Amino acid sequence: MSRDAAGRSEARERPVTRRIDTVLLPALLALAGLASQAAAQSPPPDGGRSAACIPRASRAAPSCEPTTVRAEVHKEVTFSLELPAEKLLQCATTVAVEYTQRDTVVSVEGTIDHKDCVASNGEYRLTVSIRGEDRELKRLEFVESWQRDDDQPVVFAADYPIGENVDLVSVRARQLRCSCAEEPAQ
Question: Residue 147: which of 125, 121, 124, 123 has the closest Cα?
Protein backbone atom coordinates (compact mmCIF):
# COMPACT_ATOMS: atom_id res chain seq x y z
CA MET A 1 0.00 0.00 0.00
CA SER A 2 1.12 3.52 -0.64
CA ARG A 3 -0.16 6.88 0.50
CA ASP A 4 -0.95 9.82 -1.71
CA ALA A 5 -0.40 13.55 -0.95
CA ALA A 6 -3.63 13.76 1.07
CA GLY A 7 -2.62 10.83 3.24
CA ARG A 8 -5.11 8.35 1.86
CA SER A 9 -4.02 4.83 1.33
CA GLU A 10 -4.27 3.46 -2.13
CA ALA A 11 -4.20 -0.24 -2.97
CA ARG A 12 -2.20 -1.36 -5.95
CA GLU A 13 -3.73 -4.04 -8.00
CA ARG A 14 -1.55 -6.92 -9.00
CA PRO A 15 -2.15 -8.54 -12.34
CA VAL A 16 -3.62 -12.00 -11.93
CA THR A 17 -2.31 -14.62 -14.33
CA ARG A 18 -4.17 -17.78 -15.11
CA ARG A 19 -3.10 -20.71 -17.20
CA ILE A 20 -5.15 -21.19 -20.37
CA ASP A 21 -5.02 -24.54 -22.12
CA THR A 22 -3.19 -24.51 -25.43
CA VAL A 23 -6.31 -25.81 -27.20
CA LEU A 24 -8.63 -23.24 -25.67
CA LEU A 25 -6.39 -20.23 -26.39
CA PRO A 26 -6.53 -20.50 -30.24
CA ALA A 27 -10.30 -20.99 -30.09
CA LEU A 28 -10.72 -17.88 -27.94
CA LEU A 29 -8.45 -15.87 -30.23
CA ALA A 30 -10.41 -17.00 -33.30
CA LEU A 31 -13.69 -16.10 -31.60
CA ALA A 32 -12.37 -12.67 -30.64
CA GLY A 33 -11.26 -12.12 -34.24
CA LEU A 34 -14.69 -13.05 -35.54
CA ALA A 35 -16.34 -10.74 -33.02
CA SER A 36 -14.13 -7.81 -34.02
CA GLN A 37 -14.85 -8.43 -37.72
CA ALA A 38 -18.59 -8.56 -37.06
CA ALA A 39 -18.44 -5.37 -34.99
CA ALA A 40 -16.47 -3.59 -37.73
CA GLN A 41 -19.01 -4.62 -40.39
CA SER A 42 -22.18 -3.80 -38.45
CA PRO A 43 -23.27 -0.17 -38.06
CA PRO A 44 -23.12 1.28 -34.55
CA PRO A 45 -26.37 1.06 -32.58
CA ASP A 46 -26.77 4.84 -32.52
CA GLY A 47 -27.36 5.00 -36.28
CA GLY A 48 -23.83 6.11 -37.16
CA ARG A 49 -23.74 9.23 -34.95
CA SER A 50 -20.48 9.83 -33.16
CA ALA A 51 -22.12 10.78 -29.86
CA ALA A 52 -21.99 8.11 -27.17
CA CYS A 53 -25.19 6.24 -26.55
CA ILE A 54 -26.65 7.63 -23.35
CA PRO A 55 -29.67 5.81 -21.90
CA ARG A 56 -32.83 7.88 -22.23
CA ALA A 57 -36.42 7.43 -21.13
CA SER A 58 -37.81 8.60 -24.48
CA ARG A 59 -39.17 6.17 -27.06
CA ALA A 60 -38.17 8.52 -29.86
CA ALA A 61 -34.45 8.30 -29.02
CA PRO A 62 -32.34 5.54 -30.57
CA SER A 63 -31.96 2.36 -28.60
CA CYS A 64 -28.87 1.77 -26.49
CA GLU A 65 -29.07 -2.00 -26.47
CA PRO A 66 -25.81 -3.92 -26.61
CA THR A 67 -24.75 -5.43 -29.94
CA THR A 68 -25.07 -9.19 -30.15
CA VAL A 69 -22.35 -11.09 -32.01
CA ARG A 70 -23.03 -14.60 -33.24
CA ALA A 71 -20.24 -16.87 -34.44
CA GLU A 72 -20.81 -20.06 -36.44
CA VAL A 73 -18.31 -22.67 -37.51
CA HIS A 74 -19.06 -24.95 -40.46
CA LYS A 75 -17.04 -28.01 -41.35
CA GLU A 76 -17.67 -30.27 -44.30
CA VAL A 77 -17.43 -33.98 -43.55
CA THR A 78 -17.36 -36.60 -46.28
CA PHE A 79 -17.79 -40.32 -45.82
CA SER A 80 -18.86 -43.30 -47.88
CA LEU A 81 -21.64 -45.70 -47.10
CA GLU A 82 -22.29 -48.99 -48.84
CA LEU A 83 -25.90 -50.17 -48.93
CA PRO A 84 -26.79 -53.78 -49.63
CA ALA A 85 -28.59 -54.48 -52.87
CA GLU A 86 -32.36 -54.61 -52.59
CA LYS A 87 -33.59 -58.18 -52.94
CA LEU A 88 -37.27 -57.53 -53.59
CA LEU A 89 -38.21 -59.31 -56.79
CA GLN A 90 -41.54 -58.39 -58.35
CA CYS A 91 -43.40 -60.64 -60.71
CA ALA A 92 -46.07 -59.87 -63.29
CA THR A 93 -49.07 -62.14 -62.80
CA THR A 94 -52.20 -62.89 -64.73
CA VAL A 95 -55.43 -63.97 -63.10
CA ALA A 96 -58.47 -65.57 -64.71
CA VAL A 97 -61.80 -65.89 -62.85
CA GLU A 98 -65.09 -67.65 -63.51
CA TYR A 99 -68.15 -66.98 -61.35
CA THR A 100 -71.76 -68.04 -60.90
CA GLN A 101 -74.52 -66.84 -58.60
CA ARG A 102 -76.10 -69.43 -56.32
CA ASP A 103 -78.96 -67.65 -54.54
CA THR A 104 -77.28 -65.59 -51.74
CA VAL A 105 -73.65 -66.47 -52.59
CA VAL A 106 -71.34 -66.11 -55.56
CA SER A 107 -69.09 -69.05 -56.38
CA VAL A 108 -65.72 -67.95 -57.78
CA GLU A 109 -63.06 -70.18 -59.35
CA GLY A 110 -59.81 -68.95 -60.85
CA THR A 111 -56.13 -69.35 -61.59
CA ILE A 112 -53.11 -67.15 -60.90
CA ASP A 113 -50.05 -67.63 -63.09
CA HIS A 114 -46.74 -65.97 -63.95
CA LYS A 115 -43.44 -66.98 -65.48
CA ASP A 116 -41.05 -64.66 -63.57
CA CYS A 117 -40.04 -66.94 -60.71
CA VAL A 118 -40.80 -70.34 -59.24
CA ALA A 119 -41.62 -69.78 -55.56
CA SER A 120 -43.85 -66.74 -55.02
CA ASN A 121 -46.68 -65.31 -52.99
CA GLY A 122 -49.06 -62.38 -53.00
CA GLU A 123 -52.60 -61.18 -52.57
CA TYR A 124 -55.51 -59.99 -54.67
CA ARG A 125 -58.81 -58.20 -54.14
CA LEU A 126 -62.04 -59.57 -55.58
CA THR A 127 -64.57 -56.84 -56.37
CA VAL A 128 -68.11 -58.23 -56.63
CA SER A 129 -70.68 -55.91 -58.23
CA ILE A 130 -74.36 -56.57 -57.39
CA ARG A 131 -77.66 -54.82 -58.11
CA GLY A 132 -80.33 -54.84 -55.39
CA GLU A 133 -84.12 -54.47 -55.55
CA ASP A 134 -83.69 -50.68 -55.61
CA ARG A 135 -81.67 -51.10 -58.88
CA GLU A 136 -78.61 -49.41 -57.37
CA LEU A 137 -75.20 -50.86 -58.14
CA LYS A 138 -73.23 -51.90 -55.04
CA ARG A 139 -69.71 -53.26 -54.70
CA LEU A 140 -68.44 -55.83 -52.22
CA GLU A 141 -64.69 -56.45 -51.77
CA PHE A 142 -62.91 -59.55 -50.54
CA VAL A 143 -59.11 -59.73 -50.02
CA GLU A 144 -57.40 -63.10 -50.49
CA SER A 145 -53.79 -64.25 -50.41
CA TRP A 146 -51.95 -66.98 -52.30
CA GLN A 147 -48.60 -68.80 -52.28
CA ARG A 148 -46.83 -71.30 -54.50
CA ASP A 149 -43.62 -73.33 -54.16
CA ASP A 150 -43.30 -74.59 -57.74
CA ASP A 151 -43.88 -73.23 -61.26
CA GLN A 152 -47.49 -74.47 -61.52
CA PRO A 153 -50.46 -72.02 -61.65
CA VAL A 154 -52.31 -71.41 -58.38
CA VAL A 155 -55.92 -72.63 -58.54
CA PHE A 156 -58.46 -71.15 -56.12
CA ALA A 157 -62.17 -71.56 -55.45
CA ALA A 158 -64.38 -69.88 -52.86
CA ASP A 159 -67.98 -68.86 -52.12
CA TYR A 160 -68.74 -65.28 -51.00
CA PRO A 161 -72.02 -64.01 -49.48
CA ILE A 162 -73.77 -61.34 -51.54
CA GLY A 163 -77.11 -61.02 -49.75
CA GLU A 164 -80.75 -61.81 -50.54
CA ASN A 165 -82.77 -60.54 -53.51
CA VAL A 166 -79.76 -59.27 -55.48
CA ASP A 167 -78.51 -59.88 -59.01
CA LEU A 168 -74.83 -60.58 -59.63
CA VAL A 169 -73.39 -58.15 -62.20
CA SER A 170 -69.65 -59.00 -62.28
CA VAL A 171 -66.62 -60.27 -60.38
CA ARG A 172 -63.19 -58.72 -61.02
CA ALA A 173 -59.75 -59.42 -59.56
CA ARG A 174 -58.03 -56.11 -58.78
CA GLN A 175 -54.89 -54.88 -57.02
CA LEU A 176 -52.99 -58.10 -57.62
CA ARG A 177 -49.68 -58.16 -55.74
CA CYS A 178 -46.92 -60.71 -56.36
CA SER A 179 -43.44 -61.15 -54.83
CA CYS A 180 -40.86 -63.74 -55.76
CA ALA A 181 -39.29 -65.67 -52.92
CA GLU A 182 -35.49 -65.63 -52.79
CA GLU A 183 -33.86 -68.24 -54.95
CA PRO A 184 -32.16 -70.97 -52.87
CA ALA A 185 -28.35 -70.99 -52.93
CA GLN A 186 -26.96 -73.81 -55.09
Answer: 121
